[in-house]
């Protein structure tokens, strides 16, 4: 069956009143999550997870993915109107979005942001549509050594390519590995790190940990900063929308460049935040109006929003085909799939064909629904931010507590959530990244199982990870990514020495 036929089948599956209603609900919840400080897409998805346990997997993933798209759109509202990024990936949007709002062009900036976001997301979905099957077919050749090499590549890329210090990334990852190791050893059946505590026999609840790390941790930091909202007003009319759309085609090259950057950073663990900053820098470098950047240039809104959403959608490609999330939100979704009894990877496309293509089809329709809903509800959600934060903060904490309690109907989970909230707060204050911790917590046990099975096959010989060209290239690429900062520094040093020698040789 071709990709087009599979997509049509997925469209027939999701084009029901119930699924479209779930899209609208998910988008509205996502916009709310993106607008409210202290919440974010990963935490919003984690909060919804307990509510999806009784739902069909297709309905559940539609709700969660649409919440994700809505959260990305919601982050743009706060960035442009209040100069407060609702999402980390929306920081670059504030550089020109807020100056445009101050100049009375808030509606134009929002329309450009939302439209660019839709186009970027559609490029990411097209990539997912036409590459996912081929990548899954390629991954069907994988055995335990290949899967471990892929996991190793993901971990090493986070260490070597992250903007955070490598040591801090490693520390965060080690904590995630320790979390994944708690409970019963899947190979031997022995108990590990339980300390004779019955509540640790089943391991640490992933949902509770994520709610605490992202939700409570963000709230504590926001309360400490003493957040005050000072925003601009916006009224989006059909006339403004049409006038803005008429201007946008002239920026097609910036759109295309930003979409490609976003897709690349989504597939690799760079994520939407890195993609938005990179595309903004490239847009400023190649723009004819580079002096206007930072003063209210519309291209400075288009570039980061396009890359942000392209990265957000394309991050699902490695998650579905290889079981490796490309962002923190994708990692939370990966945990949700496992809770529903689904196992992301190449076999998912064979065993759960309807689920996969239902998800891909919902991404097309969900992003269009997101654009319509967000354009219609901007004034409503902007007015929410004028509520004093002293009222909003307790409500967010209460929602987090309800979400943690509903996982196992246990007050202990609420206490555990608060403990992880304190850890998230410390991570924020000390500059430690949370995404590597979440990645290691989700993939740690799978990577361990693949490694131990590989060792059983080879009799303990590490040479199995170079036993064929495929696994050898993956392992070598992982080591290159791990030592990339050192290699890059060495290359720059060599280039500098050569330049000095050339300059000295010139009379």
Automatic annotation (TrEMBL):
<feature type="transmembrane region" description="Helical">
    <location>
        <begin position="255"/>
        <end position="280"/>
    </location>
</feature>
<keyword id="KW-0812">Transmembrane</keyword>
<feature type="transmembrane region" description="Helical">
    <location>
        <begin position="322"/>
        <end position="343"/>
    </location>
</feature>
<feature type="transmembrane region" description="Helical">
    <location>
        <begin position="389"/>
        <end position="408"/>
    </location>
</feature>
<dbReference type="InterPro" id="IPR002823">
    <property type="entry name" value="DUF112_TM"/>
</dbReference>
<feature type="domain" description="DUF112">
    <location>
        <begin position="21"/>
        <end position="439"/>
    </location>
</feature>
<feature type="transmembrane region" description="Helical">
    <location>
        <begin position="109"/>
        <end position="131"/>
    </location>
</feature>
<feature type="transmembrane region" description="Helical">
    <location>
        <begin position="464"/>
        <end position="484"/>
    </location>
</feature>
<dbReference type="Pfam" id="PF01970">
    <property type="entry name" value="TctA"/>
</dbReference>
<feature type="transmembrane region" description="Helical">
    <location>
        <begin position="199"/>
        <end position="220"/>
    </location>
</feature>
<protein>
    <submittedName>
        <fullName>Tricarboxylate transport membrane protein TctA</fullName>
    </submittedName>
</protein>
<feature type="transmembrane region" description="Helical">
    <location>
        <begin position="143"/>
        <end position="161"/>
    </location>
</feature>
<feature type="transmembrane region" description="Helical">
    <location>
        <begin position="414"/>
        <end position="443"/>
    </location>
</feature>
<feature type="transmembrane region" description="Helical">
    <location>
        <begin position="20"/>
        <end position="49"/>
    </location>
</feature>
<feature type="transmembrane region" description="Helical">
    <location>
        <begin position="61"/>
        <end position="82"/>
    </location>
</feature>
<feature type="transmembrane region" description="Helical">
    <location>
        <begin position="167"/>
        <end position="187"/>
    </location>
</feature>
<feature type="transmembrane region" description="Helical">
    <location>
        <begin position="355"/>
        <end position="382"/>
    </location>
</feature>
<keyword id="KW-0472">Membrane</keyword>
<keyword id="KW-1133">Transmembrane helix</keyword>
């Amino acid at each position: 069956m071709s990709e087009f036929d599979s997509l049509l089948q997925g469209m027939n599956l999701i084009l029901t009143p119930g699924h479209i209603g779930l899209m609208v609900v998910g988008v509205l919840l996502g916009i709310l999550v993106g607008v409210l400080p202290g919440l974010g897409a990963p935490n919003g998805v984690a909060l919804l997870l307990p509510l999806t346990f009784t739902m069909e997997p297709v309905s559940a993933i539609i709700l969660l993915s649409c919440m994700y798209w809505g959260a990305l759109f919601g982050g743009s509202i706060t960035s442009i109107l209040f100069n407060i990024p609702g999402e980390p990936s929306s920081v670059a949007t504030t550089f020109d979005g807020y100056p445009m709002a101050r100049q009375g062009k808030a509606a134009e900036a929002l329309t450009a942001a939302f439209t660019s976001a839709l186009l970027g997301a559609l490029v990411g979905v097209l990539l997912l549509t036409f590459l996912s099957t081929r990548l899954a077919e390629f991954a069907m050749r994988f055995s335990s050594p290949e899967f471990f090499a892929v996991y190793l590549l993901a971990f090493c890329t986070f260490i070597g390519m992250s903007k955070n210090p490598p040591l801090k990334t490693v520390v965060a990852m080690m904590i995630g590995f320790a979390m994944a190791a708690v409970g019963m050893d899947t190979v031997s059946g022995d108990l590990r790190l339980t300390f004779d505590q019955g509540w640790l026999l089943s391991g640490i609840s992933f949902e509770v940990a994520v709610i605490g790390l992202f939700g409570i941790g963000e709230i504590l930091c926001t309360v400490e900063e003493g957040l005050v909202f000072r925003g601009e007003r916006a009224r989006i009319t059909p006339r403004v929308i049409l006038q803005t759309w008429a201007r946008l085609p002239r920026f097609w090259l910036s759109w295309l460049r930003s979409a490609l950057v976003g897709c690349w950073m989504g597939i690799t663990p760079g994520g939407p935040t890195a993609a938005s900053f990179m595309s903004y820098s490239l847009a400023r470098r190649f723009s004819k109006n580079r002096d206007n950047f930072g003063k209210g240039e519309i291209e400075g809104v288009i570039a980061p929003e396009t890359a942000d959403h392209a990265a957000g959608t394309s991050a699902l490609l490695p998650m579905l085909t290889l079981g490796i999330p490309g962002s923190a939100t994708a990692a939370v979704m990966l945990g949700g799939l496992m809770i529903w009894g689904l196992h992301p990877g190449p076999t998912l496309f064979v065993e759960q064909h309807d689920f996969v293509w239902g998800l891909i089809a919902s991404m097309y329709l969900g992003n269009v629904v997101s654009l319509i809903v967000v354009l219609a509800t901007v004034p409503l959600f902007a007015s929410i931010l004028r509520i004093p934060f002293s009222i909003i903060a307790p409500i967010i904490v209460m929602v987090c507590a309800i979400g943690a309690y509903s996982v196992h109907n246990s007050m202990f989970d609420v206490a555990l959530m608060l403990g992880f909230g304190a850890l998230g707060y410390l991570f924020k204050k000390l500059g430690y990244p949370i995404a590597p911790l979440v990645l290691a917590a989700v993939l740690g046990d799978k990577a361990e199982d693949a490694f131990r099975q590989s060792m059983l096959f080879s009799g303990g010989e590490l040479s199995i990870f170079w036993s064929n060209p495929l696994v050898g290239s993956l392992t070598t690429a992982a080591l290159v990514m791990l030592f990339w900062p050192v290699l890059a520094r060495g290359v720059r040093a060599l280039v500098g020495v050569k330049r000095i020698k050339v300059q000295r040789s010139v009379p």
